[in-house]
Amino acid sequence: MDGFYYDLEAFGNELKDIRKSLRLTQKDVADQT
Question: What's the superkingdom here (predicted)?
Fold first, then answer.
């Protein structure tokens, strides 16, 4: 069961990183226009 929660936490952290990079790319696009 602990492994399951660990996977969930790791998945959540990955999602956070993806959101961060998405925000960065959106900022870059906005700056270009």
Answer: Bacteria
